[in-house]
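Retry 2 of 3 after timeout on previous attempt. Resubmitting structure tokens to design endpoint.
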């Protein structure tokens, strides 16, 4: 990307994949760095997914465009337009099916869910979110899936972000969870229907090769893979 070596980044050492949070009644399991060794392959697969269905800034029912750009892979893809949110088998832009779920995606999601105590998680939908500095996701609930007993698995790649994690009601207090390149989070049980969002991506950190807001693996972006059993 920049010609600089990526293997000295991030500058601070990080422990090997660990679980934090298991046992709390919130049913959130953070697998720090679980996806780090697979990140290069995951990013290549994102390029293939986006070659079938390009990233786009979808419109929400209120009429404004999201600051996060999105595409999908798997049997079902999450979309929004003026008429609302839903899952579709085809990209509304092209009428074509979404790209198949890459094997590396499905295997990582199933393994992460199993580590969090959810056996046999077989996602049929992967929403790929792309954030650039300033992009954010407001507090919302994920309620368009058929079975809330199924967990959601999230994989963070590239620039860091602060995940906002609220309660059962929109006005409940929000906790902040920093997420870094390679982090995987499994949200199940009581956590599954909590309000959540992403704080505006910082414009300053990290600095790589003297350039602010650049990550060696993804340049000026954060990608988030959100795996769901939607149908
Ligand atoms: C916590 N995406 O696409 S993924 C979304 O980082 C979304 O792009 C965020 O929220 C992102 O809907 C977060 C992780 C996630 C997904 C669903 C949750 C966290 C959740 C449902 C309940 C609680
Ligand atoms: Fe969400």
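Retry 2 succeeded. Sequence:
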């Amino acid at each position: 990307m920049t010609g600089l070596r990526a293997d000295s980044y991030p500058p601070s050492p990080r422990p090997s994949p660990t679980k934090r949070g298991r046992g709390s009644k919130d049913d959130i399991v953070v697998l720090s760095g679980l996806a780090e060794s697979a990140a290069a392959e995951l990013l290549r697969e994102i390029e293939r997914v986006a070659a079938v269905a390009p990233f786009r800034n979808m419109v929400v029912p209120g009429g404004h465009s999201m600051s996060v750009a999105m595409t999908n892979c798997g049997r079902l893809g999450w979309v929004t337009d003026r008429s609302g949110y839903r899952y579709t088998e085809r990209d509304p832009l092209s009428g074509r099916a979404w790209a198949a779920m890459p094997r590396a995606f499905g295997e990582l999601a199933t393994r992460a869910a199993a580590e969090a105590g959810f056996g046999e998680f077989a996602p049929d939908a992967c929403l790929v979110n792309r954030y650039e500095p300033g992009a954010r996701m407001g507090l919302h609930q994920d309620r368009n899936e058929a079975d809330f007993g199924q967990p959601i698995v999230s994989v963070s790649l590239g620039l860091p972000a602060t995940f906002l994690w609220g309660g059962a009601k929109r006005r409940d207090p929000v906790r902040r969870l920093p997420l870094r390149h390679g982090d995987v989070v499994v949200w199940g049980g009581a956590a599954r229907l909590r309000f959540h969002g992403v704080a505006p991506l910082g414009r300053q950190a990290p600095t790589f090769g003297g350039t602010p807001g650049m990550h060696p693996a993804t340049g000026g972006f954060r990608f988030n893979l959100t795996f769901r059993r939607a149908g």
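Attempt log closed. The chain is about 10% helix and 30% strand.
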